[in-house]
Design a protein that fits this description.
heterodimer, A: about 280 residues, 2 domains, globular, B: about 290 residues, two-stranded antiparallel sheet
Chain lengths: ~280, ~290
Amino acid sequence: MKNKKLAKKITFLVLILIAVSQLFPLYWLLTFSLKGNAEIFGDNIIGLPQNWRWENYVRALTQTNIIRYFLNSVFYSATTVAVSGMLSSMAAYAIARMKWKRSGLVFGIFAIGIMIPAQAALLPLFQLLDRTGLKGGYLALLIPYIAGALPMSILILTGFYKGIPKEIEEAAYIDGCGVFKTFLLIILPIIKPAIATASIFTFLGTWNELMLANTFVDADKYRTLPVGIMSFAGQYSTDWGLIGAGMVIATIPTIVIYFLLSNQVQDSLVAGAVKG
Amino acid sequence: MLGKKSHIAIFVLPALLLFVTFGLIPLVTSGIYSLFEYDGIGTMNFIGFGNYVRMFTEDPNFIRAVLNSLLLTGASLFIQLPISLALAMLLAKGVKGEKYFRTIYFIPVVISSMVIGQLWIKIFHSEYGLLNMLITTVTGQTFDYSWLSNPNTAFLSTVVPAVWQYIGYHMLIFYAGIKSISKDYYEAAMIDGASKWQTNVKITIPLLAPVIKTCSIFAITGSLRAFDLIYVMTGGGPNNASHVPATLMYNNLFRRGLYGYGSAQAFFIVIECLVFSYIVTKLFKKAEENASVL
């Protein structure tokens, strides 16, 4: 019995240690975002700020373009989630529930998309956007983001659609609903949880995306948060308080969504991995 | 009604056209470019697999980049996954605060790798970084080693946050897998007098084979295509020591204008991912069959 108790204590200690190692860097980020250089580079490197410098945040918001980047990121993410959610819930519906010969092939095409790393399409995409004049505008990122989000959403949604009993549509048709009305009013409400799962997956991917945002956007006014902060981290490299404040601002939305929906977020990322 | 062609087209074509135009065709185009000598402006010279041969025979930077990405893959497979699996097994047994631990371990996963990268640049900072400060406190001597600007440690310094960030991710997938194993197996094992350790080795891990396979494929392909953290933390430097194929490819395409050669490197990453996924699937075939028999 004693051994069992000891084992339990050691287990708990290990879990706590790992939790600390996962959280400590973030705690450190939060504290240095509220300190002046004297503290950051002096003798209060890991403690709570002695003098809480909220002005780091004020400076980040006023001296840099961070508000613009933030709004851009909101716009890119929200539009990508909405449009890719709509397109993928329609396409997955056709794949999972409509009767046609090529549905397997189309599903296969989207399944390939999950295997492709974005970098493999980067250059031709760059040229395509350049030639069509889309580069240098919101569409330069929106279109690749939406196209890139489709495969995973379709995979997640197809699985859900297959679990709905056939009788649902039959009953709707007997009641005189057409295909579109049935889809909008009956099917979509049923798969709401699956759409939420796919949306979270899409949101996190879009909000945090770096490579395309860094490549397809030249003008400052179309920049996303990750690229914007990376550039001002270079510009103000010795001003850790300011950079820290910017990084915290960029992280807040994902953390808030995570804490509000932690089960849903965890489920959706597991769904993404397991289906992929 | 569900078989009408016009309905199907309306539902499936918008997504399909968008994905084919902006996903599939660019991928195929990359594959075609990889067979040419091409700088984006001049003529395209067909050179067959010349670019692929060049990567391995004339480009020590590329070889180093491949070795680096294999090192990252190894760290992910043999350090990250075992930690995640062990954590998942400890948590799934039912510990006090199970849900809190799960939530905490997962936090780094949702943060952008740009933020994680910038943060770890500061952790590894030679004078004011968390790491050197810790070493200085423990040893009592000033330690100001510059982790990221020394070619010997630059890449390793990017491996640490890469492993750190996704421990919670794999943990959660394992955890979900363990929770889906029927309790009957454990009850039967207990009746037979099996120890905790025995049930872990003989029941949990074998039954988890499909999940371990998924995580392995995910860890491997994620490592082979890694870009963000390395791009942010070292940019491949110093002296090209910390490149991986993705960052090298990026430089070749967008800094040096080597469209053909860079495309070959991009395509190499795709091939690598497919080959490794295939190998892992083959390796796990037997284990998965056993898992389904149990």
